[in-house]
């Protein structure tokens, strides 16, 4: 299979398209045929060597993606072969035609969401969820101020907060951004 590989830490120029051996899932793992991969900012920090995580070289980058379940290891019950999924992390990297993920890293992707959209779901929504419900411990009826509410994480935060019954006030740096915030139901 083809995969983007990193042999040394650095800028985008260290990314190389290479042929690598196919892989198979072990027990509790899922093999996903990648249809779209997201570029998570953390991927760029790791690739540059600026992140605390420094994988052994060479490695295949990529945390976020969406695709089809190709095969599953023993004991996998959450998803099945042929299902559409998005992934939140992987064991082998998602900048490849195939990626091995732990079962808990795979999530069903509804048919009305494209693979490209699915590849961008995990990081913004997980970040927004963590901020609203785990860190702030927000409750329905409370007011929340979301700075940058027209960006990826901000849009996710507005949607999650509104769904949870918060009163949402959002900020945006452009007229277009402020229009999007209002369309999402924030003040």
Q: What is the makeup of the main sheet? A: 5 strands, antiparallel
Radius of gyration: 18 Å
**What CATH first level of the largest domain would be assigned?**
Alpha Beta
Strand order across the biggest sheet?
6-3-4-5-7
The CATH topology of the largest domain is what? Quinone Oxidoreductase, Chain A, domain 1
- In helices, the fraction of residues equals 25-40%
Give the averaged pLDDT, no decimals: 96
What order do the SSEs take from the amino end to the carboxyl end, as H and E? Answer: EEEHEEEEHHEHEH
Gross geometry: globular
Per CATH, the superfamily of the largest domain is Medium-chain alcohol dehydrogenases, catalytic domain
Number of H- or I-type helical stretches: 5
Q: How many beta-strand runs?
A: 9
The CATH architecture of the largest domain is Alpha-Beta Complex
Uncertain spans, ≥5 residues at pLDDT below 50? none
Structure class = alpha+beta
Give the termini distance in whole angstroms: 48 Å
The structural domain count equals 2
> What's the assembly state of these chains?
single chain
- Measured by DSSP, the beta-strand proportion falls in 25-35%
Description:
- With 187 residues, the protein is of the alpha+beta class.
- It folds into 2 domains: 118 residues, Alpha-Beta Complex (Quinone Oxidoreductase, Chain A, domain 1), CATH 3.90.180.10; 61 residues, NAD(P)-binding Rossmann-like Domain (Rossmann fold).
- Helices cover 26% and strands 26% of the residues.
- It is built from 5 helices and 9 strands, in the order βββαββββααβαβα.
- The strands form 3 sheets. Strands 6-3-4-5-7 form a 5-stranded antiparallel β-sheet. Strands 1-2 form a two-stranded antiparallel ribbon. Strands 8-9 form a two-stranded parallel ribbon.
- Strand 8, helix 4 and strand 9 form a beta-alpha-beta unit.
- Helix 3 crosses helix 4.
- The longest helix is centred in the last third of the chain and has 14 residues.
- The protein is globular.
- It starts with a strand and ends with a helix.
- The model has no long low-confidence stretch (mean pLDDT 96).
């Amino acid at each position: 299979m083809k995969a983007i590989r990193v042999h040394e830490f650095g800028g985008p120029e260290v990314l190389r398209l290479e042929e690598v051996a196919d892989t198979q899932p072990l027990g509790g793992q899922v093999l996903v045929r990648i249809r779209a991969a997201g570029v998570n900012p953390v991927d760029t920090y790791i690739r540059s060597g600026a992140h605390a995580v420094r994988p052994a070289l060479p490695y295949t980058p990529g945390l976020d993606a969406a695709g089809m379940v190709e095969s599953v290891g023993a004991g996998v019950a959450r998803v099945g072969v042929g299902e559409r999924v998005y992934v939140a992390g992987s064991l082998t990297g998602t900048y490849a035609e195939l990626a091995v993920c732990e079962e808990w890293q795979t999530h069903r992707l509804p048919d009305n969401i494209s693979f490209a959209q699915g590849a961008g779901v995990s990081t913004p929504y997980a970040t927004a969820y963590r901020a609203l419900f785990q860190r702030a411990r927000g409750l329905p009826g409370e007011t929340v101020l979301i700075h940058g509410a027209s960006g990826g994480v901000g849009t996710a935060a507005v949607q999650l907060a509104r769904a949870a019954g918060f009163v949402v006030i959002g900020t945006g740096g452009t007229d277009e951004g402020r229009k999007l915030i209002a369309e999402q139901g924030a003040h």
